[in-house]
Design goal:
Layout: E1 2-7, H1 28-43, E2 50-53, H2 57-70, E3 77-78, H3 88-94, E4 103-108, H4 112-120, E5 136-141, E6 150-156, H5 158-163
Parallel strand pairs: 1-4, 2-3, 2-4
Antiparallel strand pairs: 1-5, 5-6
Helix pairs in contact: 1-2
């Protein structure tokens, strides 16, 4: 299984947003950057069997923009554990329900995604990694293992993806 982890695009600043954090939207600049990232992902010829997203508006909208850019035609699935306060362990366990050869894109938040990366790589401690907004990483999970341990293949900033 290959899992791609993608942080949501630039959103309205927390301090300026007066409603629920789950409803905080992307900025116009965030949408623009994500469309360019989508073009880079399409150029890389990445394809996903499933796109999973946090239920938060900024993550869902990021997933939609990327899906449109690459021509993804399936339904985007909301994964409850991808919210900022969700359980990385429960999310990792949910991956066992997908085929072993699946390629999955998960769109979420920081520091949740960095903690998930550490878990999937088998690190008992947090790692000094931070996925930038609209950043993307690839982890290849070892087939047939119960622990879902994987290997980090690459970790890309949005600037690098846009240049591809």
């Amino acid at each position: 299984m290959i899992i791609y982890l993608h942080r949501h695009a630039l959103a309205v600043d927390k301090e300026k947003w007066k409603s629920a954090d789950s409803q905080r939207p992307l900025t116009a600049e965030g949408r623009k950057i994500e469309r360019k990232v989508g073009k880079g992902v399409k150029h890389l010829k990445l394809s996903f069997d499933h796109i999973l997203t946090s239920s938060y508006d900024r993550a869902r909208d990021t997933a939609l923009i990327l899906a449109q850019a690459i021509g993804y035609k399936r339904k985007i699935e909301v994964a409850p554990e991808l919210i900022p306060t969700g359980s990385q362990e429960k999310f990792a366990q949910s991956l066992k329900h997908y085929p072993k050869d699946a390629e999955i894109l998960a769109v979420g938040h920081e520091p949740y995604l960095s903690k998930l990366i550490a878990l999937l790589l088998g690190s008992p401690n947090p790692m000094p990694l931070e996925l930038k907004k609209s950043g993307l990483c690839r982890i290849d999970l070892e087939p047939g293992t119960k622990s879902l341990r994987g290997q980090l293949k690459w970790f890309l900033s949005p600037k690098l993806i846009k240049k591809i």
